[in-house]
Specification:
The complex is a heterodimer of chains A (about 300) and B (about 280). By secondary structure, chain A is an all-alpha fold. Chain A contains 14 helices and two strands, in the order ααββαααααααααααα. Chain A folds into two domains: about 35 residues, no CATH class; about 230 residues, MetI-like (MetI-like fold), CATH 1.10.3720.10. Chain A is globular and about 80 Å long.
Chain lengths: ~300, ~280
């Protein structure tokens, strides 16, 4: 037995190899390849090493930096809307769903999750139709509740387009925080809630004082998932507002900016090196966010074990 | 005791909020499906009413069938999704088994290395992935998409499956070893059947983003022969913007298969998300 232990256990390598090879070749190496490509520039048909010059251009050269900071600001706002609207609604719905003896629970859960499974193409187009002044569904509905005057072509106006698209994205993804928080709420043991009730803590007070502290780790996880998802978003804006993030770049975020820069669009020529620089910036932003979550938030959250 | 938690006004308020949100979630989908069965005039005159005998019209669907190459796109999406899920499950389960079952020196490091992929989106490597695919002549093939989606799905699959594999009883595996089963047979014959529910969960989680992805089909396989349904629908909708019947019909056709699959698997999906917390 001891002899058998010491010999190389080839089966471990066999079990690990396919996953590691595919993952390394298609995901990790290209990621580093992109980082590397961002340090070069195409001068006279040759790739020349320029150090961090692409990044300097991206952050300070007005030709690039105007678009970059605009996309960055829009992306931050996109993320803020999700944090302020999507996650509170998700928590509210989860709290209601987890109330004991609720009837039709499965129906609500299934129905509210439906938008999450639809593709961006469907979601983007459906909302474009619904909000379109041509079709008139929204003005008609607003008229029913006496608010006809409030209607504007929100997706077409620079001031409101980004917020509207962000809200459409909230509509699509609210199911995810709802489900994760719902799971966390279900895992709170009955004894804890009963003890709270014995002490006279019920209803809203029970939610704020007992349940909320217990689900904080899950709220942390949905926040970082939202962050990664938002700073990597592309599809919904591309489908509903086009690759230019119209009107007048008011909905341009880092994902659409990367797409335009890398592949070129209309009069602009594609530039793989600057595209890589933007992708690298997105990588660093996401990395900073994830590290902040792992080291500053997760270690401070108190976990309760039952 | 339980009275405080289930008073009638409280329950009524909870139902009211949930019903309102359910309507918000379903209304846009319903309005599109309902209107896809109406004539052009009726779509604009009375968008909120159901199709009656006078307004019922399938013109949108005939246009979609005549114009788009949808059966082919559908087939492409199906091939890409099914093959990717199969590879993610196979490779993911093998790696998860190695990490959960054996103690070896690089175990933790390998786990962390794979976990990186859960947080960092594969999209950020697109520039280099495209170069790789061009160099290996895989552009405009379904293989390119399958490889990318497999790499994308593996981290989460390994993470979820190894949690479940740790729960498989050691006695069972050791009994297998005493009976002379090889490690491979223990994996395929004993462990895999036991984690089947977890595999179904991973399959559903992997499936949704693959089926709905627009980025990689747009970049790696935009040719007519390799278009997926999502990309095909996007281009079709762009071309037929003014033909409302066709647009509504195409959207409905894109929604229905996903919706049906979801209704079949929703139990599995929800159980997967809330796993360990089922009361």
């Amino acid at each position: 037995m001891a002899v058998a232990r010491r010999q190389t256990r080839w089966h471990i390598a066999v079990f690990l190899a396919p996953a590691l090879i595919v993952y390394t070749a298609i995901m990790i190496l290209p990621l580093f390849g992109t980082l590397q490509l961002s340090l070069f520039r195409n001068i006279d048909q040759k790739q020349v090493f320029v150090g961090l010059d692409n990044f300097r251009a991206l952050l300070t050269d007005p030709h690039w930096s105007t678009a970059f900071w605009n996309a960055f600001r829009n992306n931050v706002w996109f993320f803020c809307i999700h944090m302020l609207v999507q996650n509170p609604i998700g928590i509210l719905l989860a709290a209601l769903l987890s109330s004991p003896k609720l009837r039709f629970r499965a129906f609500y859960r299934t129905a509210i999750f439906v938008p999450t499974i639809l593709s961006f193409v469907i979601v983007g187009f459906v909302w474009k139709l619904i909000l379109s002044p041509l079709w008139g569904i929204t003005p008609m509905l607003l008229k029913e509740i006496g608010l006809r005057g409030l209607f504007h072509p929100w997706l077409g106006m620079g001031d409101t387009a980004l917020t509207t698209v962000a809200l459409v994205s909230v509509w699509q993804f609210v199911g995810i925080p709802m489900m994760l928080i719902y799971a966390a709420l279900l895992s709170i043991p009955d004894e804890v809630l009963e003890a709270a009730e014995c002490d006279g803590i019920t209803g809203m007070a029970q939610f704020w004082k007992i349940k909320l502290p217990l689900i904080l780790p899950s709220i942390g996880i949905i926040s970082i998932l939202t962050f990664v998802g938002n700073f990597n978003a592309f599809d919904l804006i591309y489908v509903s507002q086009g690759a230019l993030g119209g009107p007048n770049f008011s909905t341009d975020i880092l994902g659409t900016f990367l797409y335009r820069t890398f592949f070129g669009f209309q009069l602009q020529l594609g530039d793989p090196n600057m595209g890589s620089a933007i992708a690298s910036m997105m990588f660093f932003i996401i990395l900073v966010g994830v590290c902040f979550y792992l080291f500053a938030i997760q270690t401070r959250l108190r976990r309760y074990q039952f | 005791m339980n009275k405080a938690r289930t008073s009638i006004p409280r329950a009524a308020a909870a139902h009211a909020v949930l019903i309102v949100y359910t309507i918000i979630a379903l209304f846009p989908v319903l309005i599109v499906v309902v209107n896809s069965f109406k004539s052009r005039g009726a779509i604009f005159r009375a968008p909120l009413s159901l199709p009656g005998p006078k307004t019922f019209d399938l013109i949108g669907y005939t246009t979609v069938m005549a114009q788009g190459n949808f059966p082919l796109y559908f087939w492409n999406s199906l091939v890409v999704t099914v093959v990717s899920i199969f590879l993610v499950l196979l490779f993911g389960a093998m790696a998860a088994f190695a990490l959960a079952e054996y103690r070896f020196r690089a175990n933790t490091m390998t786990g962390l290395y794979l976990a990186l992929g859960i947080m960092i989106p594969i999209r950020l490597g697109t520039v280099a992935i495209l170069r790789l695919m061009v160099a290996s002549g895989l552009v405009d093939t379904l293989t390119a998409l399958i490889l990318v989606y497999t790499a994308q799905g593996i981290p989460l699959a390994v993470f979820i499956l190894s949690e479940f594999m740790k729960q498989v009883s050691d006695d069972l595996k050791n009994a297998g070893r005493i009976d002379g089963l090889s490690e491979y047979r223990i994996f395929f014959r004993l462990v895999l059947p036991l984690v089947r529910p977890a595999m179904a969960t991973v399959a559903v989680f992997t499936m949704i983003p693959i089926w709905n992805d627009l980025w990689f089909p747009l970049i790696l396989a935009p040719s007519e022969a390799t278009k997926t349904v999502t990309l095909g629908a996007q281009l079709f909708l762009g071309q037929f913007v003014t033909d409302w019947n066709a647009v509504l019909a195409a959207l409905s056709l894109a929604i229905l298969p996903v919706l049906v699959l979801y209704l079949i698997f929703s139990r599995q999906l929800i159980r997967g998300i809330t796993s360990g917390a089922v009361k």
